[in-house]
Write a structure and sequence with these properties.
CATH superfamily of the largest domain: ibrinogen binding protein from staphylococcus aureus domain
Number of strands: 24
Strand content: 15-25%
Number of helices: 14
Low-confidence stretches: 260-270, 405-413
């Protein structure tokens, strides 16, 4: 199924007629899959910009999933630039500001893109692609439309039969004539040019005139499904010499053209449900990986107990307040032992005994959890294959998906932080406010975790979970620093210095206001506060 300028213009007209004033509830971007789902009260619009499948698909109404972003707005209009493949959907927020929200969908071959903007300046907030040859798009900056295409004849006014015949007769073969028509006249494309080149000059011009009038919204479309060699093709008008099937509207044409014998209508009606199942499969796959990684990283309990034994045996040689000590082992070889400075030598020994006990319990528990996770993943993946082929029904899919909480109250008290996952799989926690910052730093982090904060400005405390010796991977550290920059008052700066240290070196002065702490042994990293990083790493 292909989308050209006439089809997109007619689709925009149909969308505005049907959805003008309709209430939008939420949007859900999926950056890797290059999909955006818009949840209206009475329908769901799925926008796919992946090379394997591109288009606009109208589905049944569905509840926004937990990871969807609320956006209470009403449809203000829809349109396309003349003879172009950039769709604009305009919304007006019901509450909040800025009131104006615009969605630009670029269905240009090899340059598929999407940008969700806010305000009259059309500041980009959600973006799929950033580099596009002659322009650069960035979140936080005004949207720059693609460069205008060639100014072909007939874009805004009619082309005379004589001019059409002149170009039509300038080439002797169909393939050359097809290219000549596309190069000369607006609204011609790979979808319609072969039919226009094959028909005689009079019939071709008459069809083009109808097509142009429909694309310019001067007359209503005549929705059909064309029998194209590449597959069923929805279109705005019939084409000469091409078999077609009349349909009631373009939404129905796109829906029917998207169906195949292997994917019956019932499967299409649950397309959003299938997407939820695919997300569930991804979550189960990640769970399997996390459990296996946790099992592989378990320390040796005997080695931990040996460190505890050595601390007690050399009790008098262990300094108070140090972060490590080198002791002579029982075999005469020196051993370097990390310490918690705030603990006494015997408390450090007990800490190693406790860690050994936890490692033993985990070693007993993780194999069973791994087996259960693999079984759940395989069952869900098999169901997804059946759902994608149209063999599974909605009830079976719903039964497999985890239950949704009916309200925030059902989920229990909110955590004082938002969770993110770095590219390397490390958990990142970002405080939700001043009091939440204190709670995160001193009650929801470990002494060895990495603590971050934008330098000299108010902002969120950020904790990168890290239990190993040495510094965390540079990429994970920089991603956590970006979240700290975005959570600070320096979020609009081009470059933000972010201080980081181990959480054990962060202290709170007596009677200090909420959120005020003093970090020590600080290092600094400079980062750009890029909102796409936050969108990519967000877990909840």
């Amino acid at each position: 199924m292909l989308w050209d300028a006439p089809l997109l213009s007619s689709w925009a007209d149909a969308f505005e007629a049907r959805f003008g004033g309709a209430r939008l509830r939420a949007v859900r971007p999926e950056f890797e899959a290059r999909r955006l789902t818009l949840y209206f009260r009475d329908a769901t619009l799925l926008i796919r910009l992946h090379p394997s499948e591109t288009g606009l698909f109208l589905l049944d109404a569905a509840e926004p999933p937990a990871d969807a972003r609320p956006l209470a707005a009403r449809v203000r209009g829809a349109g396309c630039a003349p003879d172009d493949r950039v769709l604009t959907l305009s919304f007006l927020r019901v509450r909040g500001s800025p009131a104006q929200v615009d969605l630009f969908v670029e269905l240009i071959p090899n340059r598929h893109n999407l940008a969700l903007t806010e305000g009259p300046e059309r500041t980009v907030r959600t973006l799929f692609r950033t580099e596009d040859g002659r322009r650069t798009l960035r979140t936080g900056h005004p949207y720059a439309p693609p460069p205008a295409g060639s100014d072909r004849e007939g874009r805004d006014a009619a082309v005379t039969p004589e001019r059409w015949r002149e170009v039509w007769e300038s080439e002797a073969t169909v393939s050359r004539r097809r290219r000549a028509l596309i190069g000369a006249f607006a609204w011609t494309s790979t979808v319609n040019a072969r039919a226009l080149a094959t028909a005689g000059p009079e019939d071709g011009h008459a069809c083009w005139a109808t097509l142009a009038a429909v694309a310019r919204r001067e007359r209503p479309p005549i929705p059909v499904i064309l029998a194209d060699p590449r597959g069923a093709q929805p279109y705005s008008v019939p084409l000469p010499g091409v078999e077609h099937r009349p349909v009631s509207d373009l939404f129905t044409a796109v829906d029917l053209a998207n169906r195949t014998d292997d994917a019956p209508p019932a499967a299409l009606l649950s397309a959003v449900l299938v997407e939820r199942l695919a997300g569930h499969v991804d979550a189960l796959r990640s769970r399997c990986g996390r459990i296996e990684a946790e099992a592989a990283a378990l320390p040796d309990p005997d080695e931990l107990r040996a460190l505890g034994d050595l601390l007690l045996a050399r009790f008098g040689d262990v300094p108070q307040g140090g972060d490590s000590v080198v002791l002579e082992g029982f075999d005469g070889v020196e051993v370097s032992i990390p310490l918690e400075p705030e603990l006494s030598p015997d408390a450090n020994a007990r800490r190693y005994y406790d860690e050994a006990a936890r490692a033993e319990r985990a070693a007993e528990r993780l194999p069973g959890l791994a087996a259960e996770a693999r079984e759940a993943f395989q069952a869900a993946a098999t169901l997804l294959e059946r759902a994608q082929s149209g063999e599974a029904d909605a009830a079976e899919i719903e039964a497999r998906l985890p239950a949704r909480a009916s309200s925030r109250a059902a989920e229990g008290p909110a955590l004082p932080y938002r969770r993110y996952r770095s590219s390397g799989g490390l958990e990142i926690r970002v405080g939700r406010g001043a009091r939440s910052n204190d709670d995160l730093t001193f009650r929801h982090s470990a002494p060895g975790d990495v603590w971050l904060h934008a330098r000299d400005v108010a902002g969120a405390h950020v904790v990168l979970r890290w239990s190993q010796d040495g510094n965390p991977p540079r990429r994970d550290l920089e991603e956590a620093a970006v979240l700290a920059a975005l959570g600070s008052k320096a979020r609009t700066s081009g470059s933000v210095p972010v201080d980081w240290t181990r959480r054990r070196y962060v202290r709170k002065p007596r009677k200090a206001p909420p959120g005020l702490v003093i970090p020590e042994r600080v290092s600094t990293v400079f980062v750009e506060p890029d909102p796409t990083v936050e969108e990519r790493l967000r877990v909840d």
